[in-house]
Amino acid sequence: MTKITDLGVIETLEGLKSKEFSSEEVVSEYLKLIQSDSKLNAYIHFNGEKSLLEAKKSDQRRANNNSLPLDGLPIAVKDIFCVAGEKTSACSKILENFIPDYESTVTSKLWQAGGIYIGKTSMDEFAMGSSNETSYFGEVINPWSSDGDALVPGGSSGGSASAVAAKMAPIALGTDTGGSIRQPASFCGAVGIKPTYGRCSRWGIIAFASSLDQAGPITRSVKDSAVILQNMAGFDTMDSTSADIKVPDFINSCSKPIKGMKIGIPEEYRLDGLANDVQNVWESGIKWLKEAGAEIIDVTLPHTKYALPTYYIVAPAEASANLARYDGVKYGYRSENIKDLEDMYSQTRAEGFGAEVKRRILIGTYVLSAGYYDAYYLRAQKVRTKIVEDFTMAFNKCDAILTPTTPTGAFKIGEKNIDPVTMYMNDVFTVPASLAGLPAISIPSGLDAKGCPLGLQLIGKGFDEETIFSIGSILEESANFKNI
Amino acid sequence: MSLDKSTLKRVAYLARIKIDNSEIDKMTEELNNIMKWVEKLNEVDIEDVQPMTGVSSMTLREREDKVTDGGLEDKILSNAPEKIDGSFTVPKVIE
Fold first, then answer.
1. Residue A283 · residue A418 · CB < 8 Å
2. A390 to chain B nearest CA, in Å?
3. Which residues contact A408 (CB under 8 A, 6 or more apart)?
4. 3-state secondary structure A54-103
5. What sign does the CA torsion over B35, B38, B39, B45 have?
6. Shortest CA distance to A363 belongs to which of A128, A58, A34, A55?
7. How many CB pairs under 8 A join A and B?
């Protein structure tokens, strides 16, 4: 018999609608799993009392025939979204005991649509990482790990991807700055979409790199992601870069034919030494789309190899400014080991931030400092323009671009910690779309040599998530990927 | 351009992050490796290219200049590490 927790977003909503089960039952089942988890460490906080209370209210709305679009659906939330009254730390010691009094726009929209908060998921500290190993609350395990061979779930939304893949949530929210939704989704065999920059409000999301950060869902199916994005997207005056553009019908676009669509294959993503398993999955994806009537064409994105170095100047520069607010004065951690005000700042930040966060603040401060600004930051901003122009040219010829999501499948815990640049290479295929602000989705499409998931990435034109939902649905159907 | 130990100390001061002497060698090396790697950008011809700060091309919105909230003192102070009489407190700065 199918368990309630095996159901995805749409199936859960159907079961609630047909009164097959109540929201209270669904929420109770997930809370049991979260409480008893001793293996994955995907969640860091939950509030069973609050979740059950909200579930009861939802059941009451259904009984009164007043139900909302997502009524009764449990939703896990990456610890970067402010949820009123719930600890929100971005998995950093410096915010360990921070309890926001306000709600992020995205979570607020989901609760208004009837969604039920089920818990906070782990992440890399301040979303800086690709393996979830920098979380103050410890490593998260990829549910695809075999005994004695613990694999990372990817990052930074590693807790969200792990929870969804392990069926400890039908959906979890993530954020993506350089690949933080897509890469963990790929590693855990889940669907993850980073919408167009400006599609979802950033208000109430702890800032990492403000010109890149975007929120999106991680689910087990493309249509589930469409349902959630439909309810979290939209204009918000509280975010100055929020786009005042109508949100289209994403759910409908999941069942549109793709016959005659042009899919671009960028030659620059065929890296030297791209692993055979990744190459094979990519070739399968091309074949499936051809069979569905799409036309495959070659496109060129000549500045692809400069995307990662550009990102590692732009993102740390913005982070160094955003993270200046953590000074031990207004909220969060304050060192006890202090002599004076100056000491309070520098000691608090030394004790409160982890190694990777410090590294990025220092890089960001350096590239913005007098004498180095033009050589590094200004140059990177100009190269970013070239990267965006590449995409503009490519999209004159095609409707979407198909690439692998990651250069490898999930790796072992500790395997890529040796030096920062090795870790940064994980995001080589996801960072370009981030710099250009384009929507991109990762769809589980095959397995690597170890038998772990590999995703394919579809990049769309700005504010055209619809096309990647249509093509993504075809990929999903053809790949017929089996969850754990 | 290489990032030497004295530059690292200066940057750490600007960022207000205390660095232990025992960490300096390792950090200098790590940051130097990253900075060497990003120097690949010097290959790109950026003559006459406009820098971009973000992808959104819209102009900033305006709103009427009026107070939209206030009276949030308790909420704002609720997470303060130290507070006295409706104020944040910090170590004494004036003798």
1. no
2. 13
3. A275, A278, A426, A448
4. HHHHHHHHHHCCCCCCCCCCEEEEECCECCCCCCCCCCCHHHCCCCCCCC
5. negative
6. A128
7. 165
Which chain A residues are within 8 Å of B87, Cβ to Cβ?
none
Q: Tell me the nearest-neighbour CA distance from B19 into chain A, angstroms.
A: 7
Cβ neighbour number for residue A31 with a 10 Å cutoff: 20
Nearest to A250 by CA among A193, A182, A173, A294: A193
3-state percent breakdown (helix, strand, coil) of chain B, nearest 5: 40, 5, 55
Gap between the Cα atoms of A387 and A298, Å rounded: 17
CB contact set of B40 (below 8 Å; sequence gap of 6+): A305, A306, A309
The alpha-helical segments, DSSP class H, found in A64-116 are 105-112
Pairwise CA distance, residues B26 & A162, whole Å? 33
The first and second tokens of residue A291, run together, are 């069979």
Are the beta carbons of A454 and A405 closer than 8 angstroms?
yes
Cα A445 from Cα A433, distance rounded (Å): 20
Which helix (H) or strand (E) segment holds residue A421: the answer is: helix A420-424
Answer yes or no: are the C-beta atoms of A271 and A428 closer than 8 Å.
yes
Q: Token pair of B82, please?
A: 């130290």
Residue ranges of the alpha helices (H) in A233-335? 250-253, 276-291, 307-322
Residue whose C-alpha is closest to residue A319's, from A482, A90, A481, A30: A90
> Helix crossing, A355-368 with B5-14: angle to 10°?
100
**A451 in Cβ contact with A133 (< 8 Å):** no
Distance CA A331, CA A334 (A): 8
Place of tokens 């870790």: A423
**Residue B18 touches chain A, beta carbons under 8 Å:** yes
Flag whether residue B11 sits within 8 Å of chain A, measured between CB atoms.
yes
A401: which strand partners? A264, A459
Domains and CATH numbers, chain A: 4-259+403-479 (3.90.1300.10), 305-381 (no CATH)
- Residue A181's pLDDT band, with cuts at 50, 70 and 90, is very high
Q: Report the DSSP beta bridge partners of residue A455.
A: A444
To which H or E segment does residue A194 belong? strand A191-194
The per-residue pLDDT for B1 is 56
Q: How many CB atoms lie within 10 A of CB A2?
A: 8
Q: For chain A, give the longest Cα–Cα distance.
A: 70
Instruction: Say if B67 is an interface residue toward chain A (CB within 8 Å).
Output: no
Residue A155 to residue A159: CA distance in whole angstroms = 8
User: For the residues B47-59, what does the mean pLDDT come to?
Assistant: 84
Reduced to 3 states (helix: H, G, I; strand: E, B; else coil), residue A117 is: strand
Cα–Cα distance between A367 and A365 in angstroms, integer? Answer: 6
**Length of chain A as a residue count:** 484
User: Are A420 and B33 inside 8 Å of each other by CB?
Assistant: yes
Q: pTM (2 decimals)? A: 0.97
Q: What is the pLDDT of residues A390-448, one digit of tens each?
A: 999 999 999 999 999 999 999 999 999 888 898 999 999 999 999 999 999 999 999 99
AA identity, residue A326: Y
